[in-house]
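User: For my dataset I need records formatted as: sequence, then structure tokens, nothing else. Please produce one.
Assistant:
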Amino acid sequence: MTPSEKTKKRPTAPKPFKKLYGTSFIEEYGRIESSRSARFSTSYSLLTIELEGVDLGAQSSASADDDAASKAKRFISSTLGALRDCDIVALTKKNRLVVLLPQTDCFGAFVLVRKLRKGAESFSKKYPDVTAHYTHSTFGVDGRDYLELYKRTEERAEEQKRSLWNSLGLEKRLFWETIGALFAEPHTGNYNANFDAGQEYELSEFFMDRVNELIIKEVKRSPRRRGILYFSTGKITANMPILKAIADLGMTKTKIFLSGEQEGEEVSIGNTLPIYLDDPRLKETFFTLFLNEDFGYALLARETWGASYTCFHTSDPFLVEGLINKFQHEYSLQEQL
């Protein structure tokens, strides 16, 4: 064997997935992890993966037919490859996996879900009849013990099923297709609503500026709370109303981005990153996307005529997270939460 052959990187086989534990084991481990997190003021997260169209218990069942067992094994190996050695995975029902993630906060769980979805892409192409729903909760934010966190993931699973993200099938649409779908039908309710603003309407065209200022005040009120905030304004100029509020913000753990076409000098604010994009659609539709550890909010505004706008806003965190993910992906932005 030549030296070059010795040093050539050899392909490695995928690491086989570790053991799936049972309900009693992960409950006990969760009790210990809760005590540790409370003592050292750290956090851990709980992730639930609910499956439709596959029986995960078939992967270890001698009575299962080959196709069912193969499908279950393929899902487990393709989806869970992003997990760390310290993560604990339990099969609590035939179609439910529970993953305990030590030293993981809310946004760490967001990022992991994104990785798991990517890992399952090849599986989804082979088995389009299988649908996976991911929900999570975090110690200190959603509860102070394992059972509280588990209950919260179950509640979120039901909330996710009622979300427009699920009911309108938005996960399979592109970003601007998703925006169009939200404007296409009237929505009224506590979480989603359409409204008009501008001339001849009760709300003026400055309503959106006011909402953005209120969001900045919320960020300022909790500077240590992690979050992500996108403002898309058509054109990024030095005299934008929101810039003064951002400049007075000070240090914050919320990542703030301005997206749009550059006009004039480059905007420079220490805690804000401008993203210059030349896309005519961004000049016609303005949006604000805000997600933090406690809630999500999105405001979409499309200019109709004169200084009037048709708008949609939502406090559905699943929808907000999905919009952020699609915007980052389709404009090749750094994926972060």
